[in-house]
Amino acid sequence: EVQLVQSGAEVKKPGESLKISCKGLGYSFALSRIGWVRQMPGKGPEWLGFIFPSDSDTRYSPSFQGQVTISADKSISTAYLQWNNLKTSDTAIYYCATRLQGNAAFNLWGPGTMVTVSS
Amino acid sequence: DIQMTQSPSSLSASVGDRVTITCRAGQNIGSYLNWYQQKPGRAPKLLIFAASNLQSGVPSRFRGSGSGTVFTLIISSLQPDDFATYYCEQSYTTLGTFGQGTKVEIK
User: Fold this and answer.
1) Residue B100, SS3?
2) Does B95 touch chain A (CB under 8 A)?
């Protein structure tokens, strides 16, 4: 089955580090960009950035540049989203998504990872 | 960022109703407009890409139209499974932006 599998929910304290993952199954992971989306409670989605796993070329939204790091290991078909200094405002659901078969839009989404940052 | 504005923010409708959602872009984005459906606790699901192309597996009661700055999503006959929040997204720029969403509720 073609799917994106995300790591489980996390509860962290402000200032801590975190790395969440997104594993692609059933398709050529390296050939399709992987994007990361933030959805804060009760709000619409926002793109953080995306990566091309084939060469790790990464693009960030200006709003998130320097706040998060996106990476990928194509050998294990996994993309990552990382924070070095979490803030309470990072509390949200984080989705990964990809464009399969050259689709013009992101047509495959992971189930999301809930990240809670609280003192 | 290109601002995307949806209207209405919410609506109440009955099963069988025709529902129209509008999305306006802050600048000309050609046909680089996608529509997603999201249900509580679930990831967004792509319905329409490139303004008017139905994603595989999506029922034909969903139709997208428009170009430039004004776009429309029409649900021709609302079904119980369609009660959800709908988002437009521009993919004209390298990183897209979403509208604020339209919540479709049961009347």
Assistant:
1) coil
2) yes
From B32, which residue of chain A is nearest by alpha-carbon distance? A104
Buried b (16+ CB within 10 A) or exposed e, A26-42: ebebeebbbbbbbbeee
Q: Do B96 and A47 touch (CB under 8 A)?
A: yes
Q: Does A49 touch chain B (CB under 8 A)?
A: yes
> Following CA atoms A29, B94, B10, B27 in sequence, which dihedral angle do they give, to the nearest 10 degrees?
-160
Q: What's the full length of chain A, in residues?
A: 119
Between CA B47 and CA B41 the distance in angstroms is 18
**How far is A110 from B44, CA to CA, in rounded Å?**
9
pLDDT per residue as tens digits for the range A35-56: 999 999 989 999 999 999 999 9
Give the best residue of A3, A106, A113 to mutate against chain B (max B CB count within 10 A). Answer: A106
Q: Which of B32, B95, B100 to mutate to test the interface with A (most CBs of A within 10 A)?
A: B95
Side chain identity, residue A58: T
pLDDT in tens, chain B (107 residues): 899 999 999 999 999 999 999 999 999 999 999 999 999 999 999 999 999 999 999 999 999 999 999 999 999 999 999 999 999 999 999 899 999 999 999 88
